[in-house]
Amino acid sequence: MKKTVLSGIQPSGVIHIGNYLGAISQWALYQNKYRNIFCVVDLHAITTPQDPKSLREKTYEVAAIYLAAGLDPKKSIIFVQSHVPAHSELAWIITTISKMGELSRMTQFKDKTTKLRRESIPTGLFIYPTLMAADILLYQANLVPVGEDQKQHVELARDLSQRFNQRFGKTFIVPEPLIRKSGARIMGLDNPEQKMSKSATREMNYIALTDKPATIRKKIIKAVTDSGTAVKFDPKRKGLHNLLTIYKLFSGQSETQIEQHFRGQGYGALKKDLAELIIKKLAPIQKKIAYYMQNKHLLDRILANGAKRADKIAQATLKEVKQKLGLVL
Ligand code: ADP
Ligand code: TRP
């Protein structure tokens, strides 16, 4: 039996090269080895206010990005979370075994609510991790490939899985996070102390997967670096290290090869070459994204087929859960 891999991205904000290098491009590599399930987590996106028109468009865009980045619907189940009602059903059941204390300790929840008064914190944002646990447990996923920032949520899913199993008998697999070593945390171009983020308000923070060549050149040239000159992989020179990491991941070259290539040249040469490399690597992906966005009927067909396959697996788990709980079927 192949192990099951499951992950998802929210259709909100701007999908950037951090999401691509840290998450999506990795998923494509596992496709032959594992049973793969990738969803567009629209029900997570509505935990913060969304404009209905852009939510719909973004949902298609994330699906198009999955396909353009190499996820193959013949090898992977690709679907939209809200198309499979079992996610909401299991999320409610999992919420009933979760505790206020553990949910209050989630750092993403704390980060997203620092500026809000307690009275006005949306409940959906609070129980967001129980929905994510349901996504994972429904498919008996063994591995959950995510960036560093989601590790705590996967650990909570482990705890909830074990708690359910202890109370009601072995039902769920206990999942593990799968986090890549290099590229798990691409940093912001305008501030290499913080990660590149979808919800960044400044456009200079990220390179969107859909950025045009002129924009990419401008953002890379302006990327924050120190006042040094030698191009070397040095984790202490954070801005430079981030640019070199992006270069390494897109080019597939080793650190020594890259340092040799730029020997005797300054940051200017690196930035110029890096911008052209990103433009070259994103071009075929952008072409495919545009193609799918202009042919949404193709996306509809792929997503409907994915939902059908996902639903079958999800229903089997949900039925067992309901039986164990004592719900009359
Ligand atoms: P963001 O954190 O930018 O809002 P999400 O939380 O929706 O984006 O992340 C989607 C996926 O991309 C997750 O697996 C996340 O861990 C990964 N990811 C997000 N930002 C980065 C980054 N800067 N570097 C590497 N991976 C990232
Ligand atoms: N919370 C994840 C994020 O913001 C997205 C997500 C939802 C997810 N459900 C998931 C990731 C299940 C992995 C598995 O990135």
UniProtKB/TrEMBL annotation:
GO terms for cellular component: cytosol. One of its GO terms (biological process) is tryptophanyl-tRNA aminoacylation. One of its GO terms (molecular function) is ATP binding. It catalyses: tRNA(Trp) + L-tryptophan + ATP = L-tryptophyl-tRNA(Trp) + AMP + diphosphate + H(+). Signal peptide: none annotated. It is found in: Cytoplasm. Its EC number is 6.1.1.2. Keywords: Aminoacyl-tRNA synthetase, ATP-binding, Cytoplasm, Ligase, Nucleotide-binding, Protein biosynthesis. A motif ('KMSKS' region) lies at residues 195-199. Pfam families: tRNA-synt_1b. A motif ('HIGH' region) lies at residues 11-19. L-tryptophan binds at D135. The keyword ATP-binding applies. Belongs to the class-I aminoacyl-tRNA synthetase family. Catalyzes the attachment of tryptophan to tRNA(Trp). This is Tryptophan--tRNA ligase. It comes from candidate division Kazan bacterium RBG_13_50_9.
